[in-house]
Every structure is written in C-alpha cells, then in structure tokens.
Amino acid sequence: MVTTDKNIRHQQNLKARNIALVVLEHSQWPMVKLVAASIASTVNAAQPGSYVEVEVPFKE
C-alpha cells in the first residue's frame, strides 16, 4: 500500500497485516512524479509486513 499517512504505523497493528507499506513524505503530484521511479522500485522491492518511507522533495 502506498500512502502519505506517516502516522499509520502508530495507528494500526502492522505486524498482524500481510501488506507492505510505502509512505511518501509529501503528496503533491509535481514533486511525487519527480521520484516516481524510486517509488516504483521501492514498491517492487517491498516485502509483506515491511514499512518504508520514500523521500519526496518539497518545493513551494
């Protein structure tokens, strides 16, 4: 699952789930698309039960 909710690991019992979480630092599409390849490779490498944060640059 890909999300921008950084608190999800504190709100849910992730060990009981058989999903991988990939958390994006920011959700603004212009910034997300700059690191889309990194997000895709992180998703492809994610293992069930894992939690990974992907750095997304933020520019105003």
Could you explain the architecture of this structure?
It is a single chain. With 60 residues, the protein is of the alpha/beta class. It has one domain. It has helices spanning 8-11, 29-32, 36-45, and strands spanning 2-3, 21-24, 51-54. The mean pLDDT is 88.
List the helices and strands and how they pair.
Elements: E1 2-3, H1 8-11, E2 21-24, H2 29-32, H3 36-45, E3 51-54
Parallel strand pairs: 1-2, 2-3
- List unreliable stretches of 5+ residues: none
Structural class: alpha/beta
Oligomer: single chain
Helicity, as a percent range: 25-40%
- Main β-sheet description: 3 strands, parallel
Shape: flat
Keywords:
17% strand; alpha/beta; 3 helices
Quick structural overview:
This protein has 60 residues and is of the alpha/beta class.
